[in-house]
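Repro:
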Amino acid sequence: MKVLVTGTAGFIGSHVAQLLLARGDEVVGIDNLNDYYDVSLKHARLARLLAQGGYRHVQADLADRESLDDVFSTYKPQRVINLAAQAGVRYAAENPHVYVASNVTGFLHVLEGCRHHGVEHLVYASTSSVYGANTNMPFSEHGSTEHPLTLYAATKKANEMMAHSYAHLYGVPCTGLRFFTVYGPWGRPDMALFLFTKAILEGKPIRVFNHGRHKRSFTYIDDIVEGVVRALDRVPTVDAGWSGAKPDPATSGVAPYRLYNIGNEQPVELLRYIEVLEQCLGRKAQMEMLPLQAGDVPDTEADVSDLVANVGYRPVVSVEEGVARFVAWYREYYGV
């Protein structure tokens, strides 16, 4: 297939493009290469893609409507995977307009491109952050997401609602994927594992929020990517058993629409995550214990039963294996 992937210079987007190319798909990638974090890392990710046949890159911003219209008109993708977004949950507190431009306006332009160019299926990234104040775990796609705790989560919740409206009004099949704490090689430098590794190797203290007692469904990048591509291949349909009297938020009776969690079912306490990292690095961390940050939730735990039943996939990589792979990549990439 010809697949348009947005955010291909990013962590998840670059890995998704790699897997699509490996299986023989043609990939058109879009990224604006912004300087939110080290642009050289983004260029290094892109270089791996450009070295392969079947990849074409467009440097553009999703918020630029004309540029995106031109991409759809020129390349005529059959399917679209939207992974571009302004990253960083806490960055939104200082730069809210950037988030809305990228995550809401940009997503609208993607939906419009799909609508006007007959795209067969749109798969887009959502986040476990949409569960917000919900403490009914494991988090299920069939549960409430009405109380987001950050603007980032609110923009992703908006994406889910926008996708449903386009699926209903224009028949664009849409699948939203709620990612749970993604980590692994080629990751983002602003994320915990990257920050911890750098600090420990430099002999500097790491900041451990909530005294390390919160749990996360840490999910290795390969597990995320496999789930994304398998979801791409399963085009959603209208759910014949759906009831407006008892509406299920994960499906729809009026639109080809679906939501899935992609996360490791075994949540791990942050202190254990750090312990595994220490073992992989062969060094102890100096820990500065701090309270829970504003906007953070104490725990996350993914219910992936729908992903297993409908897509045929379950994330399987343990933190012991995943962190070891990350450390091996980090040492090689940075020469430390």
